[in-house]
Amino acid sequence: MTHESKDKPGQPSISRFRQSIGSRSEFTITFELVPSRGGRNRQTDRTLALARDLAADGRIQAVSITDNAGGHPALSPEVLGLEIMAMGLDVISHFSCKDKNRNEMESQLFGWDRRGLHNLLVISGDYPQQGYRGHPKPVFDLDSVHVTDMLNLMNKGQYLHQPTHATSFFKGVAVSPFKLTEAEQLMQYYKLHRKIAAGADYVITQLGFDARKFHEVLLYMRQHQLNVPLLGSVFIPSLPLVDIMHRGGVPGCVIPDTLHGEMKKEGRDADKGRKARLTRAAKLMAALQAMGYDGAHIGGPGLDMADFDFLLTAMEHYQSRTKEISHELSFWPDGGFYLYRKDRKTGLNLEERKNIGQGYAKLRPVYTVARFVHDTAFDPASPVYNACRQSCLTVHDSFLARPFAAFEHMTKFLLFDCQNCGGCILASLAYLCPQSGCAKYMLNGPCGGSRDGWCEVYPGKKRCIYVKTYERLAAAGGAEHFRSGFGPPRNWQLNNSSAWLNFYLGNDNRGGKRDK
User: Fold this and answer.
1) Where are the domains of the chain?
2) In the prediction, which pLDDT does 6 show?
3) What is the 3-state secondary structure (H, E, C) of 444-459?
4) What pLDDT, in 10s, does the model give residues 2-33?
5) Which CATH number fits domain 16-353: 3.30.565.10, 3.20.20.220, 3.10.129.10, 3.60.110.10?
């Protein structure tokens, strides 16, 4: 077996999945399992039976196990993971941010490290849905960039700036190339820069059906030297799920009218279109391998061992005709965004990027004034920085401290809907507050759930804050600078205190330059 031996917990071996994807010499195949609500039911038994068959088959490198997919509570991934590892099959545990604060994350990760659950897919997570007596409180204390950074430090034994036992996590992250607008798409890629800079070891795409969009993210990563393995998500939806996804009922997932029409027509067959959907997935797997992907991540409800065998057998059949396949797998809405110009011969992309950041509205006066004040008072290179700093520190030591903090909050609340977090990062988000503007409090870029520029949680009512951030930064001529930043997690000790004073005192955790 490739997992840790039972008599030596915490002594990691190199898993088959890690060897496969790390060597980049074979096409790595993983399979997604979704735990059910409850631990003792037929669905759980079927999931474990499928895992047992996959382990015996040997053509798959690992199964991934979701963490409360769709925002619904389900059996935790480590429970199934440990049982599946005992079968001799590697496990990738999804690790989401939606319902754990950083202390709970740390505690859980130490436990997973000891039990040998080292392969992770770090995600923001779906917004929590109804549970016991109503909807639960969304946590999102950290985002996926923060967790990746924390795991990187834990692996180095440098967690909390003190020597600790080094962990052995293999850290995967997600990216969606399937965004319909320029702002949504570019911010996905810019956030990927931050994830890889934080220490991500591999990437899995969001699910999609358009070969050219799959090629887009691969080309983008190559052009920007984001040299980590990339797996493409190959999803086989059920017929009812096709309709839900077409209506936008699955956050961040796009089934355009053309594909929806094809699948509905196929659904009239005796098998309700099952073979046609599997065939399309097999073609996509062959196309991904031909493009240069490092592997495929298979998923979909109700799949069984016969489906898996059909997929791999059909994939081998289509490997000899991948040049035509890319043209067949063209499923993207008319007018949907592409970053690169189309290669008419292959149906994929040329290495020629389209013009971006063009045509955005002029900046509003609030942004212009806010940027001027920030650059004047909070940039150490400003000629009046020291005077501003000294004035604020004088206020801090006087009876004016509380009125000063109240004035700051009132001003920023009226202008930016400030939530008084005490560690303001307005300047890095084009003067938009993520604590009030983002349902998931994301600090390093968008989640994957937006669609047409709308927030996953409030579609049609509230625009994604990172779409608005991109539009402002693009209008100011600096959107690409976002990819090299890092928005530190909120320090709750500073809650309801003056962010201005905290900045000058060096109490916030942004790690910026401070004068002594």
Assistant:
1) 16-353, 365-505
2) 42
3) CCCCCCCECCECCCCC
4) 444 343 444 456 789 999 998 888 999 999 99
5) 3.20.20.220
